[in-house]
Structures are given as structure tokens and as C-alpha cells.
Amino acid sequence: xxxxxxxxxxxxxxxxxxxxxxxxxxxxxxxxxxxxxxxxxxxxxxxxxxxxxxxxxxxxxxxxxxxxxxxxxxxxxxxxxxxxxxxxxxxxxxxxxxxxxxxxxxxxxxxxxxxxxxxxxxxxxxxxxxxxxxxxxxxxxxxxxxxxxxxxxx
Length: 154
What we know:
Elements: H1 3-9, E1 12-16, E2 18-19, E3 25-31, E4 34-40, E5 48-50, H2 51-57, E6 61-70, E7 73-81, E8 86-87, E9 99-101, H3 104-112, E10 120-122, H4 124-129, E11 133-135, E12 140-144
Parallel strand pairs: 4-10, 5-9
Antiparallel strand pairs: 1-12, 2-3, 3-4, 3-8, 5-10, 6-7, 7-9, 11-12
């Protein structure tokens, strides 16, 4: 029995990942129906959406008092999205809160390594809440099923 089949039998859902040239895992997702590139980042505390994308889409957000950073950025404004839905295929990840932040520093760091830009960083808030398992053998992320997931199309 493979790890993938064992996890699926124990109420996990599989997200297929692609691997970049420098080893980062990416998933295809959607934000309010718009296709997005999601970077899986086990070192990120929170799930964060590009503020540029949020503004382009006209999504509602509220500025938080705390500041954030990461991957070369520090003391950046953080916003909480109020009406956004992030999906990974048919799976609705469960972040503590869906946040937005300027990801220019992240995308500049990726560009220096020859990598494409990302729209979303999936952080450890989701990975912990959904008992995530990353299977390098199948290039998959497994997230424990939640009760209010979107049903697959009929």
C-alpha cells in the first residue's frame, strides 16, 4: 500500500504539487474563482495572499495593527481579507485568517533564483490545522478532510 492510498483511506484529501527547479513545492489554486499559484511554505506562520492581487480583484480587506515580514521583508503592513475564498482544487484550506501582504520581496527573491512569481503562500497555520503530510514520492500535499469542504462536481 502506498502512503497516498493509506492517507486517502484515513480521510485525507490529496493536492497535487509541482516542484520548482530549486525544490519549492507549488500548487494550483483559486481565489474567488481566479486561478492562483500557491507556494507551500512550511516556515511561514500564516497563509498570505499578494496584496497587489487582492487590489486587482477588488477584494475587501482590513488593515491589522500588527506588522509582518519574511523572506527578506520586514515591518510590512498586514491586511485581513473579509470576503475571499481560497481553494486548492476542491479543498478549502483552513487558515486562522486569510491575510494579505505585499509579496514583492518574496517574488524578487524567487526571480533571483530563476523562479516564477507566486500569488499565495500557504503557511503552517493550514498545515498544522489540517494535519498536513507532504509526500515527496508522489509530489503531493495531503490535508485532513474538513466537514465544510466544497463537494466535487457531480
